[in-house]
């Protein structure tokens, strides 16, 4: 099926040329934080831990859906669950 399609969330042979999909659900990784689907904003913060051999890192996240508000939050990346298609 070459030609035009968008992604799994869109109707095949509609939308845009292959590889050009701008649909949120397929172009960026999303995560679960608590009960909310979030995405990373691309910002991170870090600080040296005592001893200077390790750093603590936090990433900024924001909700994917507008219905969940327009907040931003700093979280430890280990608290995020990556969403994958089953």
Summarize the structure in words.
- The structure is a single chain.
- With 86 residues, this protein is mostly beta strands.
- The protein has a domain of 55 residues.
- The protein is built from one helix and five strands; from the N terminus they run H-E-E-E-E-E.
- The chain has a five-stranded antiparallel β-sheet with strand order 4-3-2-1-5, with no helix packed on it.
- Strand 2 and strand 3 form a beta hairpin.
- The longest helix has 4 residues.
- It starts with 23 loop residues before the first helix and ends with a strand.
- The N terminus is likely disordered.
Quick structural summary:
The protein is mainly beta and 86 residues long. Helices cover 5% and strands 35% of the residues.
What are the salient characteristics of this protein?
86 residues; 35% strand
Strand order of the largest sheet: 4-3-2-1-5
Number of strands: 5
Low-confidence stretches: 1-14
Average pLDDT, rounded to a whole number, is: 80
Distance between the termini: 22 Å
Helices, strands, pairings?
Blueprint (H helix, E strand, L loop, with lengths): L23 H4 L3 E3 L2 E13 L6 E9 L9 E3 L5 E2 L4
Antiparallel strand pairs: 1-2, 1-5, 2-3, 3-4
């Amino acid at each position: 099926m070459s030609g035009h399609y968008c992604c799994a969330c869109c109707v095949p042979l509609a939308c845009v040329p292959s590889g050009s999909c701008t649909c949120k659900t397929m172009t960026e990784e999303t995560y679960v934080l608590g009960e909310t689907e979030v995405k990373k904003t691309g910002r991170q913060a870090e600080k040296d831990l005592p001893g200077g051999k390790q750093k603590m890192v936090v990433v900024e996240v924001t909700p994917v859906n507008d219905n969940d508000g327009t907040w931003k939050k700093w979280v430890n990346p280990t608290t995020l669950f990556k969403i994958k298609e089953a």
